[in-house]
């Protein structure tokens, strides 16, 4: 097992009290740096060209991700629906730091372009009884799409996310998500089936996840719960081994993104969707951030955070999951995702929300409540979700210690001493496979 995990929990408090540079630095995977013509380079060229086009049109301050895009892509002549691929290609003539070595910036968007009428029909005109989720971005509806044969009996289930035109997710996030999910493919990432950019309508079509989100099963509904009833699991909640399986799958999804120089930036329980067997899928990539390709080969002793930090501006994400250095400076790195994963892992262990204002003072922040217990092995059982204990299914002490050890290292205040996701995947595989 990893050396940093063996030393847990005796050195956790020592690390927290030591100076920022005293912890062991961990180098991130640099395989993406050596692939100038790789998948990463292509998506960076496309995203940067879209951003440059947006800045030309807007003339104002650009968003941190891909700039202020036009209110909608230039509409093509009917009958074909608007094509994001065409919109991206039309803006590729702009100058960009990433375009100098490429003869073509055209990116193939694998997702199907739907018309608004097609998706409205598939989702039953967005009736309330088809509503399966709701958030700051808009609403998600269950839909039935033809598989391609045209037969009414041959329908495939899908989830259609209709973005609120006045919501938190704007046009730039919509473009980023379509581009990202058109090129990122992994068993632990949600599949994008299609999109709609009809007029001012913005819709995304995903594969249908029958068990909803992890938040629906793991966390108790908040006082401000949505009008749609949450999916509920058994009274004992999710079993321990299943929780660790979900953690391992989410870690693998993050590892895949980081290997391709993508910062997810919005890891949280509501963005993890569950298949019928509780296999997790990361979803909602509107805030994802592409790291710039280094201009020169990185030094061997450079840390992942110094090599991957991007200039800070507007902090975006979900309060309670954001890394402290990101909140302070606005600078983003791969280790920001690692911190968010630590919060998620604590949620899986405790069954508590990252932020819960209904709890007493001192317990409203999950990390603030749990961190003092990390250095006391005899008190780790206090972190366990009471539903597991009441069902006589508490985690084995060794597995609990290992899971909490991983969470504590991910939650280190100084980003340089947090592990990389490859190490996290390795550490969790022993629990999820046992």
Automatic annotation (TrEMBL):
The protein's name: non-specific serine/threonine protein kinase
Keywords on record: ATP-binding, Cell membrane, Kinase, Lipoprotein, Membrane, Nucleotide-binding, Serine/threonine-protein kinase, Transferase
MF term (GO), any: ATP binding
Family (UniProt): Belongs to the protein kinase superfamily.
EC number of this enzyme: 2.7.11.1
Location of the protein in the cell: Cell membrane
Classification of source organism: Eukaryota, Viridiplantae, Streptophyta, Embryophyta, Tracheophyta
Membrane-topology descriptor: Lipid-anchor
Catalytic reaction list: L-seryl-[protein] + ATP = O-phospho-L-seryl-[protein] + ADP + H(+); L-threonyl-[protein] + ATP = O-phospho-L-threonyl-[protein] + ADP + H(+)
Region (Disordered): 1-34, 52-104
SUPFAM superfamilies, per database record: Protein kinase-like (PK-like) (SSF56112)
A GO cellular component entry from the record: plasma membrane
Organism, as annotated: Paspalum notatum var. saurae
Domain Protein kinase positions: 126-431
Skewed-composition ranges (Pro residues): 71-83
Pfam annotation, one family: PK_Tyr_Ser-Thr
Biased composition (Low complexity): 18-34, 84-104
Binding site for ATP: 161
């Amino acid at each position: 097992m990893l050396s940093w995990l063996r030393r847990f929990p005796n050195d956790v408090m020592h690390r927290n009290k030591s100076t920022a540079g005293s912890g062991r630095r961990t180098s991130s995977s640099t395989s993406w740096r050596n692939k100038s013509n790789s998948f990463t380079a292509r998506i960076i060229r496309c995203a940067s060209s879209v951003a440059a086009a947006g800045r030309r049109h807007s003339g104002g301050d650009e968003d941190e991700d891909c700039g202020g895009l036009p209110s909608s892509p230039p509409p093509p002549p009917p009958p074909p629906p608007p094509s994001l691929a065409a919109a991206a290609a039309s803006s590729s003539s702009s100058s960009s730091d990433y375009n100098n070595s490429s003869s073509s910036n055209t990116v193939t968007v694998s997702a199907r372009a739907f018309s608004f009428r097609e998706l409205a029909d598939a989702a039953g005109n967005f009736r309330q009884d088809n509503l399966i989720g709701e958030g700051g971005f808009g609403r998600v509806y269950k839909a039935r799409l033809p598989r391609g044969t045209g037969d009414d009996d041959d329908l495939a289930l899908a989830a259609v996310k209709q973005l609120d035109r006045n919501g938190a997710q704007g046009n730039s996030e919509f473009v980023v998500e379509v581009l990202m999910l058109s090129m990122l493919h992994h068993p632990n990432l949600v599949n994008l089936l299609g999109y709609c950019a009809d007029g001012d309508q913005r819709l995304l079509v995903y594969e249908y996840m029958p068990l909803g989100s992890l938040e629906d099963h793991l966390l108790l509904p908040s006082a401000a719960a949505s009008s749609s009833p949450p999916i509920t699991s058994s009274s004992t909640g999710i079993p321990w081994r299943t929780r660790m399986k979900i953690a391992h799958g989410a870690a693998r999804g993050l590892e895949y993104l980081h290997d391709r120089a993508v910062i997810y930036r919005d890891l949280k329980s509501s963005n993890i969707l569950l298949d019928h067997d509780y296999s997790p899928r990361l979803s909602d990539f509107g805030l994802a951030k592409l790291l710039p390709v280094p201009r020169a080969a990185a030094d061997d002793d450079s840390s992942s955070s110094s090599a991957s930090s991007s200039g800070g501006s507007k902090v975006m994400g979900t309060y309670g999951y954001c890394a402290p250095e990101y909140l302070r400076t606005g600078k983003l790195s791969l280790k920001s995702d690692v911190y968010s994963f630590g919060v998620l892992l604590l949620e899986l262990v405790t069954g508590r929300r990252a932020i819960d204002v209904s709890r007493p003072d001192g317990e409203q922040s999950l990390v603030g409540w749990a961190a003092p217990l990390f250095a006391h092995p005899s008190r780790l059982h206090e972190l366990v979700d009471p539903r597991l204990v009441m069902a006589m299914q508490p985690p084995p002490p060794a597995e609990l210690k290992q899971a909490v050890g991983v969470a504590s290292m991910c939650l280190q205040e100084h980003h340089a001493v947090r592990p990389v996701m490859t190490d996290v995947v390795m550490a969790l595989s022993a629990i999820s496979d046992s």
